[in-house]
Amino acid sequence: MKKTGWERERRIHFDEITAEYDKIRWDYPDELFKDAIEYCNKNKESGKDKRAVEIGAGTGKATAPFLDDGYDLTAVEMGTNMTGFLIDKYRNYNNFKVVTSTFEDAVLEENYYDVIYAASAFHWVDSKIGCPKVYKLLKNGGAFVLFRSNWNSFDNRRLADDLQTVYGKYYYSYYKTGDRDDKPTKHTLETLQKPEAVYKSFRFESMEQYGFKDVTMKLYDRTHTYNTDGYIKLLDTFSDHRALPGENKAALYAGVNEVIEKHGGTIKTHSTYQLYMGRKTE
After folding, report:
1. What would the pLDDT profile of 105-143 be if each residue is shown by its tens digit?
2. Which of 98, 120, 197, 223 is least surrounded by Cβ atoms within 10 Å, i.e. has the fewest?
3. Cα separation, 55 vs 224, whole angstroms
4. Domain 8-150+185-221+272-280 homologous superfamily, CATH
5. Run of H or E residues at 221
6. What is the edge-to-edge ordering of all strands in the sheet holding 96-100?
7. DSSP state, 35?
8. What is the pLDDT of residues 60-102, one digit of tens each?
9. Nearest to 38 by CA among 279, 281, 253
10. DSSP labels, 60-111
């Protein structure tokens, strides 16, 4: 069976690199949180209790905006190191708790939550269990919110071509599958709304198929610049890269290092952040 590096059993990889993950992984755009919270708070009465679940909270890169907006937030995180990190990071919030579990196995109250969301994490969930469970846990009118980052392109075309040569030798020689494509692609709302693109991002084809309504998607373009060391550290927070055999990974990182240094010692990436939301309406 061909491997992609994103098999569900690999979702515990990040627990090995908690501090590094928190330091190097990207933050999400402020506008994304603003739009998400505005959608979640639509038609909510002021002063009423607001409850949220974050699926696969990791190191809490997407946690503070919902806490600061007044949500009583339950983070579901399966990694024990990540759990400890989260508890310490948000120790000053009394509206925060952590459940150490997969989302599929987490014991949570049905028809209770106003928001259930995941940041670059829902693709690790078995959607045939996860999506119906989200629907059951949400109150009527509650919001299901998913977001992630998609690679668009590199700023330097020659650098990008040289990187693809390196990936051809050490990455694509191992991952012989079209399911995991690390080649930069231009993403648009039209392309990302297609069922096959939704599936690639979140492992199900549409929120509508699970009964959600008022479904919407928004995109946010951002640019990030890394030095050589920072970019390789970022790559090592990707499950597919971490899952490479040691020989392949060492050669890949050495090749990436050589390419970036050859082109001036920095690499600029263009990314599209994707916000996908639906509402339980009965």
Report:
1. 999 999 999 999 999 999 999 999 999 999 999 999 999
2. 223
3. 26
4. Vaccinia Virus protein VP39 (3.40.50.150)
5. strand 212-227
6. 96-100, 71-77, 50-55, 113-119, 138-154, 266-280, 212-227
7. H
8. 999 999 999 999 999 999 999 999 999 999 999 999 999 999 9
9. 279
10. TTTTHHHHHTTEEEEEEE--HHHHHHHHHHTTT-TTEEEEES-TTT----TT
